[in-house]
Amino acid sequence: MHRKTMILTHVAAALLASQSASASVAPRGIFAVRADATNINAAIDGLNRAFASFKETNDKQLAELRAGIASADTQAKLGQIETDLGAFQAEIDRHNTVLAAMQMGGAQGGAQLADKEYSASFNSHFRRGEVQASLNTGADADGGYLTPIEWDRTITNKLVLVSAMRQICRVQPTGKKGFSKLFNMRGTASGWVGEEDERPETNGPAFKTLAFGNGEIYANPAATQGMLDDGLIDVEAWLADEVQTEFARQEGSAFLSGDGTKKPFGLLTYIEGNANANAHPLGAIEVVSSGDANTITSDAVFDLIYALPEVFTGNARFALNRNTLGMVRKLKDNMGNYLWQPSLIAGEPSMLGGYAVTQLPDMPTAAAGTTPILFGDFQQTYTILDRVGVRVLRDPYTNKPYVSFYTTKRVGGAVVNPETMKAMKVGAA
Q1: Which partner from 56, 159, 210, 239 sits 20 to 30 angstroms from 310, CA to CA?
Q2: pTM of the entire structure?
Q3: Which tens digit of pLDDT belongs to each residue from 327-352?
């Protein structure tokens, strides 16, 4: 069997195992294309057809605005197409995540999480941060209320937007409570001398250190032993997923905006004008103006790309949230070409100005005075510290008749090199 076919077969199996019996369906708008686990090509085809229609409709709207005959129908159609674009891209990203997990775990390894911190052993326990909830069989809102009737044995989860910072940044395990990094500030002096001239001592290099912010996330959900024994659903597995999702949400937000107090130092805090602008020995993350007081311009995207030294562009990518991406999709260069391009093949991200795009839900939305876009090499810029790992204590004694699941995770983070990252700030040049 061809290697790519074999990998996609394992991906399909992993997706089918993780979903309910009904296959996932891509958007039901203008481009209603079924994109189930065995047909990622349908999602890619749908994305590209939707993008082609988006360009045509957006151009039509621009022409109508210039002519002063703006059409509500055109605006409505454009809005629906943008919704379809986002849904198709989300479907492809979901496939890509599973593909990356399969490649991380090996073709024979079964479906594994790309981050081994959240592996099968943790899945058997939990994921949810700073939550203290007790589940019993008497209150529907508390996850109980099991009655002797036929009922839907699945649980529909409330949407939680989880950051992709762990996927694009460097993750380093550590066994110590504190962590610091040494920086060479150079400063070694030299000079020209004659054959018989004296060689006096010169200045040596100077060094500075940077401390990383650390913190601990905890969760302590509980359920009655009766519910664990008699429930018609796997309550422990459900709680495990809850805890893991919440931990990912908590730390993802901290990796971007954490203040370092009992949590990591966030990447955004190192940008010029922000809290840690003067904290790093190498200075702050430099900003590039968006070229407009309230929005983003095409020229600013290219300014951002070329502000980053070429030596750091090999692994560079854009990071922004979904709302900002919706604005960026409409940008064109001087030749009328759209700067954003959708994924063309499985496993590849969408592109902006020739560079990969990663959506981070915790990034600010483009508005006056915000920094909605980052561009650079995240692997070199930001380091996440994992200390010890995730620990779960199953406690059936402290709070009878409840069984508590005390879960902790220690994590830290900070910017290692601000020179490998640039930020766009909304404002006139």
Answers
A1: 210
A2: 0.69
A3: 999 999 989 999 999 887 777 889 99
